[in-house]
Amino acid sequence: MSEPNRDAAPGVESVTDMHRALMTQMNDPVMLTAAGDDTTGDERGDEPGAGGSDSVQGMHQMLMREHAEPRDGFEPVPFWVAVVCGGLLAWGGYYIGANSADFRRDVYDRADLKDVPPPAGPVVEPNPRTVDDLKRIGEQKYQTICASCHGPEGKGQPAQNIPPLDGSEWVAGDQASAARLSRILLYGLNGPIPVKGRTYNGAVMPQQGNVLKDHEIAGVLTYVRNSWGNKADPENAKPTITADEVKAARTKEGARKPNGTQPVNHDELLKLPLTYSDTGTSAAAPKK
Fold this sequence. Notes:
Blueprint: H1 15-27, H2 41-44, H3 56-65, H4 79-98, H5 131-150, H6 169-172, H7 178-187, E1 193-195, E2 198-200, H8 214-225, H9 243-253, H10 266-270
Antiparallel strand pairs: 1-2
Helix pairs in contact: 5-8, 7-9, 8-9
């Protein structure tokens, strides 16, 4: 401690005088050693404070070397990440809008649909009225459906128990009528049946009522009745079997199913008189 201030009042030391020596020592670039003496570094070795290393700056160097501890927080999103995410969202919205397959609430509010006329009524089934027109329709159906069994020339397959159509009395002979033939094609034929002096038994004639329309069945019947050696309709303008005849036969049978489960047989056909007509008009007796 320094000597008392001579100018101060007796017995009183100023605060400055009391700390002057300490301040001088703290501000000295090279402080005394930790031991409180002026021993050199060589004498003290590597002890703390050796060689006057314990200056104020030296004491704080290790604190200044340390970095702040890492911490979790709500750091701002980098600008480039925000730009990329925004671009992806914009592209996704455009893609969905451009490829939505018109799944929109206003899809039927388009201006180009306002003047579209309403759908037409039910399609009217054709009703050909001449032998030639019916044959044209019937030939295509016969060659597609019937020829595989009865043959392209209507000769049948006797060895397979399939009767011929050419020259058959049930097609254009004394057993033929519109009512009988319509039912054979509509519902199929089962059981024995005599054709040209031979009884055919075992083969089942498949139904066509659930496959062909009425005018197509009339066309097939008119075709086989006026092809090969058969000549049942001499007048082109007066076909015996029309779509009206087939439709009337279907109506008369009512609940009978044209799916092959309820075919007609020989005895049932014979119960229909040759002059019977499902349309209510008297049918001409077949020529013998």
